[in-house]
Specification:
By secondary structure, the protein is an all-beta fold. The chain is 1% helix and 40% strand.
Length: 720
Amino acid sequence: MLAFASRPRLLLGALLVACTTSGELPAIGPDAATPAESPTPEPPPTPLGAATPSAASPPTLDAATPSAATPPTTPALAAVAPQRLHPATSTAELFGITGDDAGLVLAVGVHGTILRSDDHGQSWREVASPSASHLAAAWRSPQGSLFATGSDGTILRSRDRGLTWHARTSGTPHWLRHLAGNPHEILAAGDHGTILRSRDDGDTWTSVAMPTLAEPSRKPSRDRLPPGARPPPPGPDDIVRSMYRPDEDVRGLAAPRPGELWIALRQLVWQRPDDAGAWRVLARTAPPRDSFANLWVGDTHWVVSGRNRGSERPSYFVGTGTAGTAPILSGWSQIDSRLISPPIVTGAPTGAPPILYLAGDGYAVHWSEDGGLRWADSEQSAVMQSPYPLAKRAMWVAPDGIVHAAGTAGAVMRSTDHARTWTVQNGGAREPLFGGALARDGSIYTAVAFAVLRGRADHWQLLSPTSTLPVGGHTEAPTSRGLVRCCTDVWVAPDGTILAAGNGLVWRSRDDGRSWKKTHDSDPRWDCCWSLWGDDRGVHGIDRDVILSSIDHGKTWTRSSIAHLLTRDDGNRLDISGSDDHLLVVGGPGLILHSSDRGRTWARRTSPTREPLHAGFVATTATGLIALAAGEHGTLLRSTDAIHWQQIALPTTMRLLGIHGDEARGELYLAGESGLLRSRDDGLTWALDPTVREPLRSVFGDDRGQVLVAGERGLVLRLP
């Protein structure tokens, strides 16, 4: 058991994660505005919304792969679930969304996730699902029944506005990725040419045949052609035949009127006017158009979206046309976009022409107010609660014109200004959390892009000076994010002073996060990744090849160079940690620097590994010093003097990003990309925690029994 020597308790027990390349933030436009050196009063921190813990835990990641040499481990840990503090309703991927005109909004996603709101998306809760299958589509019939479909031929129905759900028999094992219908029938379609129809409100389902093509006409063989003659060019039917397979996946579905059916396949859009009518092709791909992605059909117009070939620019296209008894294709639009996946498309329920919307995985959202002739766009991430692109997997336009979208990390997004700006409706930020600190008053601090996230009494706030970011159309909007861009770290002094660091900058707040002052600004090598460590005696940070130290809670800093100890191969992703007079810096590949005199002198230690190291830890115990360094591929190094190091075998090969030791618990913790490990014998043997199988970036606490982990998608857990 970890037995710490008697010493002043540290405000922060640790932690601070060295950022990896995968932790870099994508650019979202110009750097945030830099406030003046002198602090100016700022508006109150922006609330992130009440975070209601999910009734069902989100899906866990695959278990970590054991290493070839599996060491003896400590006894199995009791499966007591940690307390989820943040984010809110769900972090499951969402792929379908629908609603009604009375305030109901419904979103569905992986592992049977069903989220429900009955107040126009203002508040959300997860409802029980009868299936663990992935749900890919949601739809509300004009009679009020709700349907969700997904993998394994799953069909769910609710007749009480989404409160309870029941499975229906589909008769197919294939994915059902699309739902559509009208007052007389419901259609579901998906993989391998599967199309199902129900005309009894989903009680029974029958198969609908895909289009069929006539046999090709016999053509004269080449050896029968007259000398010098060319074979006849392929006719329209031959072109369609080369682009069509009756068992291919359906990519779009619509059924605007009884008997009428539309489907989008990879290269063709088909329409049938009624049950007895013949299928006909309304659109097909042709260079540079590569493939269709999504289809929407309204009362007067229809639109199909898709991707252009390979390196073609613009990357995306939209085809639009008129609907009705004789639908036609009007034309094509090429769209230059920051989307990074096939775009989804939807339209307003009324209007001639309707307002059209185009979105997907990426930063941009596009809209057209003239039926697809011209398109405008905005940066959806700029004024949301995350600068990361919260992908929109599905969109639905309510009868009042408000646009809702469901997407990554369980986010349900809402726009009241026709897609110009968006807000996340179902609880706080869903971005990666870097580093962490627990203050003496119990407040939880963790670093996010451009801000510090604080949790206090179950209320979460972004702490930062305000700035403006572009939102499209040559306009900007205010946002509560004005600190460093990426790989930030946070430290809180005993008197409540908050330090946030990253990109060669240190920001300081003395008034509970209401105003901030920049107290360190290094050279413009902004790609460096900051790390902070401190105790009652002072705080230390590392900025590429410089150690900074402060004994006045970050107001002033002294610099000492460690460049002479580094090589070009060591990179600039370094982590600093400490205990009493010992300071430890680790990095990659296998970099270990140690100081036994509080940073006055440094020495490079011989490392037994060339794996990049992302986190270090030092503790003074009753039996001496314990030092740990962790990194790629489950690499863990251990030392009892911070000079001589040996590699410790672990029951995992996951990337390790954070280390913490808690005196009151007598435990050590390793946080990694797919879970948590614990040790109760000074780090000699480790056991995977079966209750935490989610991507983590840091572990921290107060050294008095409170231990928290933070990671991807805004995850914060308190360990039991």
